[in-house]
Amino acid sequence: MTTSGCIDSVRNVVEQAGDNQLTLSIATLPADADRQNVQIARRLEANLEAAGVDVSLDMRSPSELLKAVLIDHEFDLYVGRHPADYDPDFLYDALHSTFAHERGWQNPFGFANMYFDTLLEEQRRLDGEQRKQRLGSVLHGLAQEKPFEPICFPDERRVARTDEFEGWDEGTLPTRHGYLGLEGDDRLHALVTDSRVTQNLNPLSATARGRETTIDLLYDSLLSERNGELVPWLAESVEWSSTRNDDTNGEQSDANVDGERRTVSITLREDCRFHDGEPLTASDVAFTYRFLEDTSLGRAPDSPAPRYRGQVEMVESIEAEDDRRLTISLRGETPAGRRALTVPILPKHVWQELIDQRAANGEFSAPQGRWVAVTGDHIPPVGSGPYRFESHTEDDQLILGQYEDHFTLREDVDLGEPVPGGIRFTVDPGSTSSIRRVDDGGADLTASMLNAHSLGAIPDTPDVRQLSSPHRIFYYVGFNVRNAPLSNPHFRRAITQLIDKETIVDEVFYDHATPTATPVTDDWVPATLEWSGEDPVTPFVGSNGRLNVEAAKSAFETAGFRYDDNGRLLGGY
């Protein structure tokens, strides 16, 4: 069971609410930010009200919504879009109880369950079929406990012109490899529907960052994800080794890892530099991992970065042997261990100076996630990636130039090259208008994922090409399980039965999405959780989009709640 204070909190609700109608708020985005998001929220609002709950919608901008959910933890329910990751280890970040009181993308729900923790930890030490089995147990438990409820994976579609740039097949947008696979001499003009990229380029920001595409263009990492696989990036060579730990008494676990200490010896590419001309060395790599673990570097308690937390946890120690060579001890040469090597490498001289200045001014009293290292916009950014910052106009555009000294431009490196003209990201908040601009030749690419309602506007012309990316992002409803009655899993299950995922996909996404019972896809999904026309655990209580109100009320009564004579769901058991 969750340890979010269920019994005490419910008693508190009974004492305070008495016979008052239960009231909930659903945080969401306005239609001009994400039309699908608010339509899902409105459907849930209508069905909750039909079931006797007093509901209000709390519409916020993308940054404000993420601040309320990820930083302040001030919400009841929210409808959002999870960036997920190429590997299901992101579930460790999302659900482990260690993070229940932290701020950032890790466990915003406040969910705490020791059984889940054990499974999540075990899958990090495993690979192959054993790992798949552990993750299957995680997914089954998630379907029962429901700290959040996945709804669907939207079709990720973009459009691009084919007359100025070639190579759209070489990589998958939106990744750094997708952009480095392009060929053309001019500046790539890409349209984005979200203006946050023009306002904040802090790689640690939880409220400004969804996916990491822009950060991956500005910053390098040791390894880089390419079509679901990790390839050396800033690392020229990666050598794995293992030694037996002394405290195992010669016993070997089924993971073949617990009895071993995994180390990776990394040699950085020669003569790499940050965009300000300073050399990038193994010292910067070691600093990055130490800083992500504690953004105050020992000057304040509980200050891990609100991003990359789970990845950094896989690192036991790191030692710089010289400017190019370092040794990292990891908790295993597993997918989760390799994922730890994908964080952006930060310049020590920039971030150390920031910390020293703030320490001198006594600015280390703010709690995790709220001081300038993670809340500042960090414009201009100092990275080492294939593109460098040139200029920006807030809410209008961001211009990145080719970094002429980047290793991808060397003859002996075959990882794709940044286009000579750089990239201009321009804000166009409408998916349909973005498609029209590309069709008219006013832009080369819609960099943001297009909203489902606009896909019918994609023209069938030879100069415009539709680009598809694998399912990764998913829409979901998140619950703040810190507070009653949402601390009660039976109550959460009753709410999820009000969500008709098939009808949402049909009427909100115009069939340009795939309904789901899990936050992962493909081979990771156990057969018992595969979608077969309805949710296999908590099916919609109704049919063809119409709620069976009596069945919905019965679900809440089964969860221990009661109704008054006017059909209002009351705030206590």
TrEMBL record:
SUPFAM superfamilies: Periplasmic binding protein-like II
Gene3D superfamilies: Dipeptide-binding Protein, Domain 3 (3.10.105.10), Periplasmic binding protein-like II (3.40.190.10)
Protease among keywords: no
Pfam families per record: SBP_bac_5
GO annotation (BP), single: peptide transport
Entry keywords, A to Z: Signal, Transport
Highest taxon of the lineage: Archaea
Domain Solute-binding protein family: 229-567
Alphabetized GO MF terms: peptide transmembrane transporter activity
Signal peptide (from-to): none
UniProt keyword annotation of Magnesium present: no
Family membership: Belongs to the bacterial solute-binding protein 5 family.
Protein name (Swiss-Prot/TrEMBL): ABC transporter substrate-binding protein
Native species: Natrinema saccharevitans
